[in-house]
User: Which sequence fits this backbone?
């Protein structure tokens, strides 16, 4: 289920603070910046005079915006627009910080936010609609949105008003199944192709001492994220934790009969010891700990990072082979992978109503969609984190041979921070080991990826209903699922559905169906 962050902002406070704010972009005088930029030899110039803009930007992945991030310093030289971050480095709760800023009514010139916040507060006057600005002053961005209607849809409201430029991911494959191939060989087992075969393999893993230490310490299935881990198993019984659309009909997984069947089987596997007994408590280091201790047998996780363990542990565990495999066919005989990368993420950056120069700002946004800007946003600084080889940006040893994860090194330049730009999967491909790349290719060649549930746009009324209903539904699902798996209570899906109905789950489906229908109609235009 797509996570919805609930903010504490008071609409009445914001509306009052923004009263009288015009939604119309404030055009710069064409006699200065516009004409000079057009005639300049610098194709990236966004403002004739040096312009400083304050930016509210920060996420858990990349941290808060730093004024000295090299790619933004370089971009300032090229565009004549300098960004100054407004968030202190100590910020941990970005949702709360956003709430405080919005409630104050005094907004930085550029704001990073979730799509739902842009759509809500944009219509209240907090942000500027970007359509005309893009059409007149952002040719690269305009072309990109024309070529990618799904991204344009994610960035706009139901009336077609574009409120922000999203972070756009690249690459299809996200997660896959990894299994100890060396354990399979030692026990004389074949790679499991069905749910029953997987059950037999996990049973052998936990009972037949494949690590050879004469202890019954092996863990069958494990995961570093409890919810995502359990969700990966669900698909084996054709169940899903979230919304899916099949032949135009939206379904909510927990309400479907298959969900109850999946829970019964997962609870049984847990009882048999085939699933990590500490899956609800071990935490984010589970993969590190269990693989390093030579006790973990199977997981469903990101290709690139999971594949790296083969290199990390090869010298510590003789014969260690933790390798990707195709998903076992589900109970209906279908081989499928439910995870798939979102293209347009549900966050990005937009222009606040008080921005002193919207034209220069949209030109600045446009810079990141030029070839040079996109390269910097993905790979960092030429000569430092990458060099050009045969027309391609190739990472230097600083990135590839660091003790840190490559993406963390790249982020020290400001690249791969979550602002409005289009990723280039080649950045990740370079530090993905051949083994993981082979796994990705295997999944792509077999066309196992399910269609992604799209990012939907809700009306203000629908959003208010979701915010009222969803927290109660989610809490009940998470708590009940854990009780079932741990054996604290028997699986009773009929009673479970009845309670979900009382909490309003069916109404959530209706809201999603209406939004999905609007999305499909928009894609056909």
Assistant:
């Amino acid at each position: 289920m797509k996570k919805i962050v609930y903010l504490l902002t008071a609409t009445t406070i914001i509306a009052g603070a923004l009263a009288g704010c015009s939604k119309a972009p404030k055009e710069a005088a064409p006699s200065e910046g516009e004409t000079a930029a057009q005639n300049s030899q610098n194709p990236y110039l966004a403002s004739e005079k040096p312009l400083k803009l304050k930016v509210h930007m920060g996420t858990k992945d990349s941290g808060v915006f730093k004024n000295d991030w090299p790619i933004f310093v370089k971009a300032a030289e090229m565009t004549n627009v300098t960004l100054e971050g407004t968030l202190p480095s100590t910020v941990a709760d970005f949702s709360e910080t956003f709430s405080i800023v919005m409630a104050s009514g005094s907004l930085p010139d550029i704001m990073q936010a979730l799509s739902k916040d842009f759509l809500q507060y944009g219509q209240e006057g907090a942000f500027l609609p970007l359509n005309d600005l893009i059409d007149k002053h952002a040719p690269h961005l305009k072309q990109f949105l024309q070529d990618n209607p799904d991204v344009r849809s994610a960035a706009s409201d139901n009336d077609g008003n574009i409120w922000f430029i999203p972070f756009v991911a690249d690459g299809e494959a996200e997660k896959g199944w990894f299994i100890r191939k060396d354990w399979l060989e030692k026990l004389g087992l074949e790679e499991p192709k069905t749910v029953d075969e997987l059950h037999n393999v996990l049973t052998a893993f936990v009972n037949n001492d494949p690590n050879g230490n004469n202890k019954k310490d092996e863990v069958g299935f494990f995961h570093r994220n409890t919810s995502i881990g359990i969700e990966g198993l669900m698909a084996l019984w054709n169940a899903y934790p979230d919304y899916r659309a099949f032949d135009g009909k939206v379904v909510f997984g927990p309400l479907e009969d298959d969900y109850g069947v999946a829970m019964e089987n997962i609870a049984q596997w847990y009882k048999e010891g085939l699933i990590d007994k500490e899956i609800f408590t071990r935490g984010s280091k589970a993969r590190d700990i269990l693989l390093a201790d030579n006790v973990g047998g199977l997981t469903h996780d990101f290709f690139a990072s999971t594949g790296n363990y083969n290199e990390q542990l090869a010298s510590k565990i003789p014969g260690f082979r933790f390798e990707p495999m195709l998903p076992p066919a589900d109970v209906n005989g279908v081989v499928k992978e439910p995870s798939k990368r979102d293209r347009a993420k549900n966050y990005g950056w937009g222009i606040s109503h008080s921005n002193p120069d919207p034209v220069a700002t949209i030109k600045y946004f446009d810079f990141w969609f030029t070839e040079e800007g996109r390269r910097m946003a993905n790979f960092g600084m030429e000569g430092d984190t990458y060099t050009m080889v045969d027309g391609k940006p190739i990472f230097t040893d600083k990135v590839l041979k660091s003790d840190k994860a490559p993406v963390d090194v790249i982020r020290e330049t400001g690249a791969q921070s979550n602002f409005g730009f289009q990723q280039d999967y080649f950045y990740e491909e370079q530090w993905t080991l051949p083994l993981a790349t082979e796994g990705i290719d295997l999944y792509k060649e077999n066309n196992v990826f399910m269609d992604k549930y799209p990012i939907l746009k809700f009306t203000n009324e629908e959003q208010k209903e979701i915010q009222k209903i969803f927290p109660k539904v989610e809490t009940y699902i998470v708590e009940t699922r854990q009780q079932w798996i741990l054996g604290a209570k028997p699986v009773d899906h009929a009673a479970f559905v009845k309670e979900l109905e009382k909490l309003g789950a069916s109404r959530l489906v209706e809201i999603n169906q209406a939004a999905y229908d609007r999305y499909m109609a928009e894609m056909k235009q």
The radius of gyration is 25 Å. The CA atoms of residues 195 and 328 lie 6 Å apart. The first strand starts at residue 51 and ends at 56. The longest helix spans residues 460-486.
